[in-house]
């Protein structure tokens, strides 16, 4: 007996390898058909012909056997090595094992120019996230070490933003271990990973909003930042994203509990539960940036500096604010069109900006931060003074003295130099 016809409401899995996991990935559904199989002459219990969730046809098989069938040649626009096999066990009671093993199915990298660019962009993504993570951890260490020397609300907000970038980058790297087989099994742990990643992603954008809100309040509204309360910002950055992700996870669990909750199915907009607030934050931060640059230009025109220097300062301030407020993510909404050159530029620019944003935030708001550098310089000078003093004390104590001379006199005379 052949496989039953592929039902209309059957769902397909999402694309295995998502290059740019920025705000969301989109899964295209497609119908997979397989040729019917002739009925085999078996005695005893049989596993009926069926299809799995991916759409692979499993012919009628004898109970107690492990059945192998070629990997699909193409799935969601990606070609796979059909010389490898998908494995599924026909249990002794005549029922199929719940899941098929797709671990041997590997994608074939096409020799097309764009495929090569995607491969390079993927390397850029890994490299950028690793470099950013190292820089962010270093910046976090500086903020923690100097927390008493640079105690102010602005630096505390920077510290929280750096923390969200660390958690988000670490979760992104953890996300890359989820393969097709894991997605097909819809493992609980991979659903937890994607949920945690989305939470850190939302908190990251909300702390960008906090940065924009602080700057807009201080520069545009000329409100005293001493009156701003840190607890309010902490609530905005860490607490508000929690119910958003909880609602998203509950809706996913009841209405789209498949493929580790990656992407979204056509006709369903569940992911906009958390993507909507992210888009809103970006739009508000764009308004903040516009007002901040407008006020900055007004103040620069009122100064006595030359026009060239004024514009240079304005451009510098704008470039510094772009990664802080997350405005670079708005490039993800740009459609590169069908032009191959535009698509390649889009791939590389987005890969670079997305993966290296944490690095830029670390450089601009920690390593080049005047207060951080001043505090580090003081700590270094204090350490050098203590080191020199200890060396002098050691040298003084090592000078031979006569029995009638008080050794403390030698120590006092030496240290007074």
From TrEMBL:
Question: Which Gene Ontology MF annotations are present?
Answer: corticotrophin-releasing factor receptor activity; corticotropin-releasing hormone receptor activity; G protein-coupled peptide receptor activity; peptide hormone binding
As given in the record, the signal peptide range reads 1-29
Per UniProt, residues of the G-protein coupled receptors family 2 profile domain are: 33-109, 121-369
Q: How does it sit in the membrane?
A: Multi-pass membrane protein
Main localisation, per the record? membrane
Q: Which Pfam families match?
A: 7tm_2 (PF00002), HRM (PF02793)
Give the UniProt subcellular location, in the record's own words. Cell membrane
The record's annotation in SMART domains points to: HormR (SM00008)
Alphabetically list the UniProt keywords: Cell membrane, Disulfide bond, G-protein coupled receptor, Glycoprotein, Membrane, Receptor, Signal, Transducer, Transmembrane, Transmembrane helix
Q: Where exactly are the transmembrane stretches of this chain?
A: 126-146, 158-178, 232-254, 274-293, 314-333, 345-368
Q: Entry's InterPro entries? A: GPCR_2, GPCR_2-like_7TM, GPCR_2_CRF_rcpt, GPCR_2_extracell_dom_sf, GPCR_2_extracellular_dom, GPCR_2_secretin-like, GPCR_2_secretin-like_CS
- The superkingdom of the source organism is Eukaryota
One GO BP annotation is: adenylate cyclase-modulating G protein-coupled receptor signaling pathway
Q: Which GO terms describe its cellular component?
A: plasma membrane
User: Which PANTHER family does the record match to this protein?
Assistant: DIURETIC HORMONE 44 RECEPTOR 1-RELATED, PDF RECEPTOR-LIKE PROTEIN-RELATED
Family, similarity comment: Belongs to the G-protein coupled receptor 2 family.
Q: What is this protein called?
A: Corticotropin-releasing factor receptor 2-like isoform X1
Q: Which organism is it from?
A: Petromyzon marinus (Sea lamprey)
């Amino acid at each position: 007996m052949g496989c039953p016809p592929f039902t209309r409401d059957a769902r397909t899995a999402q694309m295995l390898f998502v290059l740019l996991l920025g705000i969301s990935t989109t899964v295209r559904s497609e119908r997979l058909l397989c040729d019917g199989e002739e009925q085999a002459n078996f005695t005893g219990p049989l596993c009926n012909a069926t299809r799995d969730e991916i759409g692979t046809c499993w012919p009628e098989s004898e109970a107690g056997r492990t059945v192998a069938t070629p990997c699909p040649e193409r799935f969601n626009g990606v070609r796979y090595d059909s010389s490898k096999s998908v494995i599924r066990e026909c249990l002794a009671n005549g029922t199929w094992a719940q899941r098929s093993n797709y671990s041997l199915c590997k994608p074939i990298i096409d020799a097309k120019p764009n495929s090569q660019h995607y491969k390079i962009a993927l390397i850029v993504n890994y490299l950028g996230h690793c470099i950013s993570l190292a820089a962010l951890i270093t910046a976090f260490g500086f903020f923690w070490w100097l927390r008493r020397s640079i105690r102010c609300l602005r630096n505390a907000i920077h510290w929280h933003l750096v923390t969200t970038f660390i958690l988000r980058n670490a979760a992104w790297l953890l996300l890359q271990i989820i393969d097709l087989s894991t997605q097909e099994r819809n493992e609980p742990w991979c659903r937890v990973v994607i949920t945690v990643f989305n939470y850190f992603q939302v908190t990251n954008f909300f702390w960008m909003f906090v940065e924009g809100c602080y700057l807009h309040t201080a520069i545009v509204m000329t409100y005293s930042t001493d009156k701003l309360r840190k607890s309010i910002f902490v609530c905005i950055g860490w607490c508000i994203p929690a119910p958003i992700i909880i609602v998203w996870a509950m809706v996913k669990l009841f209405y789209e509990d498949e493929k580790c909750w990656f992407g979204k199915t056509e006709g369903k907009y569940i992911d906009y539960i958390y993507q909507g607030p992210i888009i809103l934050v970006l739009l508000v931060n764009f308004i903040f940036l516009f007002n901040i640059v407008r006020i900055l230009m007004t103040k620069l025109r009122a100064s006595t500096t030359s026009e060239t220097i004024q514009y240079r300062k304005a451009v510098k301030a704008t470039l510094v604010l772009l990664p802080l407020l997350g405005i670079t993510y708005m490039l993800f909404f740009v459609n590169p069109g069908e032009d191959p050159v535009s698509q390649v530029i889009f791939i590389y620019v987005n890969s670079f900006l997305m993966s290296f944003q944490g690095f830029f935030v670390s450089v601009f708001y920690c390593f080049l931060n005047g207060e951080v550098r001043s505090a580090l310089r003081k700590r270094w000078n204090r350490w050098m003074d203590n080191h020199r003093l200890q060396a002098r004390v050691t040298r003084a104590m090592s000078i031979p003295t006569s029995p009638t001379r008080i050794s403390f006199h030698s120590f006092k005379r030496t240290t007074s130099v």
